[in-house]
């Protein structure tokens, strides 16, 4: 008898066979993956936790945290690179910024001049960009002098006075010759004395002396108690230089007995103009203040120099070629002597180009000193300790392109190297504070190299893995050594 299986039993056998084959394949595959396992697991019942292991685990966390902070700071502060390139700036003008205090040069005589190799010569640069402030004898800023303006033209001499001084003296000397011996006595003996401090070599003084002689005769006839005196500053140096700090010739001062009336006379130099000025002062002699513009200035003592210095601040535009700008004593109606011109000064600020944006300036301040030599003269004091000398400054200007933010346009500025020295002048020359500059054809490119994000991630993973492995090795070595020592003791 032949036994036959039902159709359902055959299907079950095929299904079981396929399932067994699948399990066999899975078992082989899992075994192969186990062979590739680089991280074999230790059963929980075979692991052992120790106090020393807890210490090392804490140490691992601390080291990882410190190294992560260092790496994060390094990633956030991109490294700075610099290289020298050809300066391809197409600008034709260069801005020079300055803020300086001249301790012994009045604002009315301070002149800012500029000269370059192209032949451009600008004398007494004016405009709203240059401003002046009066300084007291201690160098402290006191009052605003105003914007630098062209000096007012005045009548230098009286054309109606045609006679020479020698001819005018034929009927007697009416303008008193004052010296250090008779100066104070003369002032006390007369209500008003109009004194001209002069020098024989001064051309303006030579033209003025006949006018003063005629003026003295006119005032003498008027019997108003006003006299005229002259002081030769070449022979009366103590009186001119030390006592009254006379800088320019002629200097005209009015005294009410022993008191000096400020400011000095600066009007037309004719008999009519002098007479009008002196009569008005004599008629108002009881006034305690003389008006000047909108402010009132009190009378000062005989030996008091109220504002001997001047602070000049602002900027000028010059051609972008080698040249110099200088500060000197200048006047359309005065002559200066080198021995009385003191160009001692303090440089509060000196730079080239426009100021950078605030954020860019903050980043520049964080750079090393050799990459931010933008104003090396700032805060320096230069004193002329002898006559006929003045400080000269030589500036090597180098263009600098700061590309500190890859997302923004680079800022073009200037660095400079400064060298200063005291220069001597001949006795006939008037000293000047000179700032000579030369522009380099090369430029410095300063930029920050931003690290890519994947570099930061790689470093962090290296910190985690390296720290974990190294501390694990140390922990294992210490654990084995302690067990071995314990067995030997037991």
Structure description:
The protein is of the alpha+beta class. It folds into 3 domains: 50-78 and 457-490; 81-136 and 311-448; 165-298, Glutaredoxin, CATH 3.40.30. Helix content is 31%, strand content 32%. The protein has helices at 7-35, 51-76, 165-168, 183-189, 203-222, 237-243, 271-283, 358-365, 453-489; strands at residues 80-86, 93-102, 110-116, 121-122, 127-135, 141-148, 176-177, 192-198, 226-232, 248-249, 251-256, 259-265, 289-292, 295-298, 309-319, 323-329, 335-336, 345-352, 380-382, 389-403, 411-424, 432-448. The strands form 5 sheets. Strands 1, 3, 4, 16, 20, 21 and 22 form a 7-stranded mixed sheet that branches. Strands 6-5-15-2-18-19 form a 6-stranded antiparallel sheet, with no helix packed on it. A 5-stranded mixed sheet has the order 7-9-8-11-12, with helices on both faces. The longest helix has 37 residues, at 453-489. The radius of gyration is 44 Å and the shape is elongated. The two termini are 81 Å apart. Mean pLDDT is 82; it is low at 286-304.
């Amino acid at each position: 008898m032949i036994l036959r299986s039902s159709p359902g039993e055959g299907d079950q056998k095929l299904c079981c066979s396929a399932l067994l084959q699948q399990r066999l394949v899975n078992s082989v595959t899992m075994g192969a993956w186990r062979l590739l396992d680089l991280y074999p697991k230790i059963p929980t019942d075979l692991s052992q936790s120790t106090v020393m292991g807890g210490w090392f685990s804490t140490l691992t966390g601390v080291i990882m945290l410190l190294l992560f902070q260092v790496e994060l700071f390094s990633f956030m502060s991109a490294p700075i690179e610099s290289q020298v390139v050809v300066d391809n700036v197409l600008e034709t003008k260069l801005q020079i910024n300055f803020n300086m205090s001249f301790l012994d040069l009045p604002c009315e005589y301070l002149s800012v001049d500029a000269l370059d190799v192209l032949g451009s010569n600008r004398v007494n640069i004016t405009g709203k960009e240059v401003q002046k402030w009066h300084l007291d004898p201690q160098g402290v800023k006191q009052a605003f002098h105003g914007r630098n303006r062209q000096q007012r033209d005045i009548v230098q001499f009286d054309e109606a006075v045609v006679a020479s001084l020698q001819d005018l003296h034929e009927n007697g000397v009416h303008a008193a010759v004052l010296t250090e011996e008779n100066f104070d006595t003369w002032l006390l003996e007369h209500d008003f004395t109009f004194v001209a401090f002069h020098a024989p070599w001064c051309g303006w003084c030579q033209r003025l002396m006949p006018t003063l002689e005629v003026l003295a005769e006119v005032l003498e006839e008027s019997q108003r108690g006003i006299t005229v005196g002259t002081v030769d500053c070449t022979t009366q140096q103590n009186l001119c230089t030390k006592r009254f700090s006379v800088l320019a010739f002629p200097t005209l001062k009015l005294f009410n007995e022993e008191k000096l009336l400020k400011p000095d006379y600066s009007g037309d130099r004719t008999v009519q103009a002098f007479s009008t000025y002196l009569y008005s002062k004599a008629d108002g002699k009881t006034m305690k203040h003389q008006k000047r513009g909108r402010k009132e200035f009190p009378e000062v003592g005989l030996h008091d120099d109220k504002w001997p210095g001047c602070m000049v601040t602002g900027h000028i535009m010059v051609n972008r070629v080698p040249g110099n700008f200088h500060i000197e004593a200048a006047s359309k109606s005065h002559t200066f002597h080198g021995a009385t011109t003191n160009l001692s000064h303090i440089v509060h600020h000196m730079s080239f180009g426009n100021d950078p944006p605030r954020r860019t300036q903050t980043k520049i301040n964080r750079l090393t000193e050799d990459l931010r030599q933008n104003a090396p003269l700032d805060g320096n004091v230069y004193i002329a300790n002898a006559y006929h000398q003045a400080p000269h400054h030589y500036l090597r200007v180098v263009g600098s392109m700061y590309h500190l933010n890859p997302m923004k346009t680079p800022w073009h500025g200037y660095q400079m190297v400064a060298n200063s020295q005291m220069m001597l002048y001949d006795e006939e020359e008037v000293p000047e504070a000179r700032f000579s500059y030369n522009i380099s054809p090369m430029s410095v490119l300063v930029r920050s190299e931003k690290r890519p994000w994947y570099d930061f991630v790689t470093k962090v993973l290296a910190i985690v893995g390296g720290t974990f492995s190294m501390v694990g090795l140390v922990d294992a070595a210490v654990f084995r050594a302690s067990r071995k020592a314990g067995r030997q003791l037991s």
